[in-house]
Write the structure tokens for this entry.
Amino acid sequence: MKKHRTIGVIALIGIMTLFLLSGCNTNSSSASEDSSFLEISEQGTFTAGGTVERTEGTYDPTDPFNPQGQTSHDAHANVFYQIPEGANDHPLVFLHGYGQSRVGWQTTADGREGFDTIFQRKGYGVYLVDQPGRGAAGQTANPAEIPNLTQDQNWFTQFRIGLWPDFYESVQFPKDEESLNQFFRQMTPDTGLYDSNQVSDAMAGVFERSGPGVLMTHSAGGVPGWETAMKSENVEAVIAIEPGGYHFPEDELPAPIPNKYRELTGNPVSTEDFNKLIEIPIVVYFGDNIPEEPSEVPAEDFWRAQLEMARIWADVVNSHGGDVTIVHLPEEGITGNTHFMFSDLNNQEVADHIASWLETKELN
């Protein structure tokens, strides 16, 4: 009787195991197209860059909240990294945009795999950064008031998901209520005053730790991204997803581009700094629903101006011997992408396009 009971328990465990495994494979709404295991050889978290603030005086342990003699470590980046088994020698370092954190690279609004996992499957180590004053790097020497503004509908429009409350007809964003809820809750504020020089200093520190690699930036991360490439010789290439600005030689600034959002200007830098951008391959990606003619909608008109400025900048860099490619995805037959192409429904297709570019530059 005891023997039969033991066999029955073993059988029950086996049935339960099969049930759990089959249950994991039936969640088609959030499962990756590639459901194979991903073996990670190394992962961890570290900080990079930063400053130490000191208050004059002598610390008194009997008066613990008196700042005299005490220090504060701040203005650093916080980095989560994963290195897959058999990774190549060109890790990707990801820098988020405005109101975002590294979470945006890790998943999508509807729970699919984000760029970090997709590119690990392609053989790249990944370093996901929270810039100084954002996310897990909130300790700051220049604190800012955090406003509680109702702006979801503004971001819906600014990020080219649609014109609230309507989605663009062919948009590559999931249109269900819960996905939109998750997307809005991904927004996170600055805890301190924004300083692109501070961000790029911290990013240069990230590359000291990661070693040579490729920088991928998004939106407002674009400006400190160019500055990071100027400061660190470990930046092998830059992939900029709809960057927020461009650096030009001081004597080659283009005319401002007016638009309904705000006038768009180039950022002047020294010839020495600019020349560092011509030494590495750069690709700049833009998504869909960017008008060719001026629009009465400020957000749409802003992106029209941004694409125009990007093309002007590419011409200037390339005229100096640089290697800049502008990719407007609809011209590649890839349509419907928002400002967040790395988490859109076709993010795998976008990643494949980026991976092909990396291969042409022998960065795979």
In short: Confidence is low (pLDDT under 50) at residues 1-33. The chain is about 30% helix and 20% strand.
